[in-house]
Amino acid sequence: MPSSPHSRSIDLHTHSSVSDGTETPTQLIRSALAAGLDTVALTDHDSTAGWEEARSAASGTGLMVIPGMELSTRVQFASVHVLGYLFDPANAALIAETARIRSGRLHRAERIVQRLSADFELTWDDVLAQSTEGATIGRPHIADALVARGHAPNRSAAFASMLHWKSGYYEPHYAPSPLAGIRMITEAGGVAVLAHPGTGGQRAVVPEAELRELIAAGLAGLEIGHRENTEAGKAVLRRYAETYHLIVTGSSDYHADGKPNRLGENTTAPDQLERILARASGSEPFAG
Ligand code: AMP
Ligand code: ZN
Ligand code: FE
Ligand code: FE
User: Fold this and answer.
1) Segment 194-224, tens digit of pLDDT
2) Which of 7, 20, 180, 268 is least enclosed, having the fewest CB within 10 Å?
3) Which atom of ligand 1 is nearest to the CA of 139?
4) What pLDDT, in 10s, does the model give residues 142-190?
5) How far apart (Å, rounded) are the C-alpha atoms in residues 82 and 179?
6) For residue 44, how far is the Cα from the chain centroid?
7) How would you write 117-135 as a 3-class SS string?
8) Residue whose CA is closest, atom 23 of ligand 1?
9) Region 116-130 average pLDDT
């Protein structure tokens, strides 16, 4: 369910073709304007490569762009996404770690494709044809290749079948721990927010003792408004936010045609964005 409407329309989680969205950063900025947003964060997976294009595209439009990233982290087999906002894109530790993650993703995708190719007509070139040069490669690009070959009707269907973690073709990719990821974003002057932390329902939300460790490492906020968070999960997250005075965000996780999520379907309250801006010291928002 969309969160209550705010007088300003602020969406802090979107993907472009720099990772697994289907629109270029320029197209994404146009879509954000068309959707009536006045602030949008570009948060591609493990990459800041879209920041400059987004900045140019927003110039003169009145749209505010918050440069960000969705950092892949992992606890055993469970993937945990951390949104980082307004960190220094030249931070050496973050550059090295995201390069390592992207390279791990690439080789893991090649292995998934190799396994799939035993049962389906599918080549690595098919996957490359679905991604732009230098993009952060993920299962979505494999999904698009499966769709292009006629093996699945759409991306979501491919995720529900051949690309599901239980499918036998899946494997995880290298990622740091959430603690290390949050520390890195924070040390780079950024603001770390846990992405969609309530998707598995009440029991799957991060335990309170672990949350305290993440907060000690710099965690600033929780993305509560997200279509994949369950109501039970959101209830726990709201209590955490209140107890620990965390920033609360709501966002779409837009991937253009790659996912049903629509821009502005969840939004962030202006006072929460102010808290993010006040805490950040690594880079400036692009005020178009
Ligand atoms: P990966 O990180 O390679 O394991 O792939 C998971 C990513 O795919 C998540 O970040 C999802 O947001 C993304 N994704 C994009 N489109 C879809 C979709 N239609 N269904 C499920 N996940 C998707
Ligand atoms: Zn994604
Ligand atoms: Fe995510
Ligand atoms: Fe995302």
Assistant:
1) 999 999 877 789 999 999 999 999 999 999 9
2) 7
3) 3
4) 999 999 999 999 999 999 999 999 999 999 999 999 999 999 999 999 9
5) 10
6) 6
7) HCCCCCCHHHHHCCCCCCC
8) 140
9) 97
Distance 44 CA to ligand 4 centre (A): 7
List all residues 6 or more positions away from 216 whose beta carbon is below 8 Å from its beta carbon: none
The CATH number corresponding to 107-160 among 1.10.443.10, 3.10.20.30, 1.10.150.650, 3.40.50.2000 equals 1.10.150.650
Q: Report residue 248 as tokens.
A: 């609360």
Distance, first Cα to last Cα, the chain: 30
Chain CA centroid to CA 5, Å: 22
CATH value of 10-98+174-287 in 3.30.450.20, 2.60.40.10, 3.20.20.70, 3.20.20.140: 3.20.20.140
Residue 19 Cα to ligand 2 midpoint, Å, equals 7
CB 175 within 8 A of CB 72: yes
Ligand 1 touching residue 21 (CB < 6 A): no
Nearest CA to ligand 1 atom 13: 140
Q: DSSP for 77-105? A: TEEEEEEEES--TT-HHHHHHHHHHHHHH
Q: To the nearest 5 percent, what fractions of the chain are helix, strand and coil?
A: 40, 15, 45
Would you say the CB of residue 275 lies under 6 angstroms from ligand 1?
A: no
Going from the Cα of 175 to the center of ligand 4, the distance in angstroms, rounded, reads 15
Report the pLDDT value the prediction gives residue 81, as an integer from 0 to 100: 97
- Contact (Cβ atoms closer than 8 angstroms) between residue 276 and residue 220: yes
Q: Cβ(141) to ligand 1 under 6 A?
A: no
**How is 130-183 classified by DSSP, letter by letter?**
TS-TT----HHHHHHHHHHTTSSSSHHHHHHTTTSTTSSS--------HHHHHH
